[in-house]
Amino acid sequence: MWCEQVSIDQDVLIVILNDAGIHRLGLIEAVPQCDQEDLQDIIERPWFKRMWTVQEAAMASETWVVCGDKQIRWIRFFWGLVEAHKYNPIESSMVAIDSMILMHQFWLEVYRISELRESAHRKWADKDSWLYRKCFGVSPRAYDMWQAFLDFMEVYGMRIFYLQFAFSISGFVIRLLQGFRPLDSISLAVVHSSSVIVFLLTPPKSNPHWDRLLRASFINFLHRIRVQQATEAKDKVYALYGLLERLEIPLLAQPDYSPSHSLKDAYRSFTVSIIKWHGSLNVLLEASGPWGTGAPSWVPDWSRSYRRVRFLRQETKTSPNTDTGLLLLF
Questions:
Q1: How far apart are CA 202 and CA 194, in angstroms?
Q2: Tell me: the pLDDT tens digits for 157-213?
Q3: Is the pLDDT of residue 148 over 90?
Q4: At what angle do helices 36-43 and 8-24 cross, to 10 degrees?
Q5: What's the rounded Cα separation, in Å, for the pair 70 and 15?
Q6: Closest C-alpha to 151, from 103, 206, 99
Q7: Is the dihedral of CA 58, 60, 64, 66 positive or negative?
Q8: Which of 68, 90, 110, 326 would give a disulfide with 11, using CB separation of 3.0 to 4.6 Å?
């Protein structure tokens, strides 16, 4: 992200926001003081209000904010703004701040899918990796064997490690009691080394419910993102397609800007996709009544924002799939 037309005071502000982000992490005690006018000038830039920038910030592997000749990591910029707004609230900039919070939440969801759904061990042989191109790409059977090995290690790897570790410790103690030097034993060295290898090759267990938090909050995400601006009305949903695909939310159709594909068709396809993935009709809470010529009343008009109640789904502790109702938050 680039903040243009920077003044000297705003250049200093970037340094202050960086310190504020560090303060938020508890690494420094002093609370940096920001000039409210410069702070407001930065967070009210059009970049924070655009629809496409949500996807840009959420999907970037590493985002930097550049202002003049200063640059700052997005994570520090975000927490610096949160910390600065905490001590110097700017009511007129709440929309921009809420947009940044939304970008950060989507970034967390993208991070969650990369960390919880698939372990780093399986990414070693990803189809874009060097290992796949040199080894597994020429032998599909070898790739299948590698995946089967990871499946086995995911279930039994830690059990094997604990057995090896227990054997290594017991052998170490026995040799001490017998008056021998434990480190002179080749067998113990082999067992200890193999236990380390087993530990490194054991992927963490997959989390089948990695998207549970996303499902619980996604409809409210969609509601909050409606305040973002787009020149093309279709971009109010198309600007999210890359992000939704990254979050493995299946879409019924690809973006279509042709005149034959109307706005109501684009919004209808998007809404039906969310219904199918979410497994509920909660997204219909976004519908605010009839709009457009021939548009179904149950399809939300994503081109505009409106205020509605937020909801949280309550679940029983004994059965997480049993709904007990909706908690409405005004």
A1: 12
A2: 889 999 988 988 888 888 888 888 877 788 888 888 888 898 888 887 766 666 777
A3: no
A4: 90
A5: 8
A6: 206
A7: negative
A8: 68
pLDDT of amino acid 320? 42
Q: Residue 272 CA to chain centroid, in angstroms?
A: 23
Residue that is written with structure tokens 């409106």 in the block = 306
Side chain identity at residue 190, one-letter code:
V
In sequence order, what are the beta bridge partners of 71?
66
- 202 in Cβ contact with 158 (< 8 Å): yes
The DSSP output letter for 133 is I
> SS3 for 313?
strand
How do 2-3 and 64-67 pair as beta strands?
A: parallel
Give the ranges where 117-139 is alpha helix by DSSP (H).
120-123, 130-131
**Two structure tokens written together for 269:** 């396809």
Query: In the predicted model, what is the mean pLDDT of the chain?
Result: 76
- Tokens at residue 302, please? 């994503």
pTM score, whole prediction:
0.63
Contacts of 215 (CB under 8 A, 6+ apart): 278, 279
Q: What is the pLDDT of residue 12?
A: 53
- Phi then psi dihedrals of residue 234, to 5 deg: -65, -25
Cβ contacts of 83 within 8 Å, gap of 6 or more: 20, 21, 23, 24, 31
**Which of 261, 267, 258 lies closest to 240, judged by CA?**
267
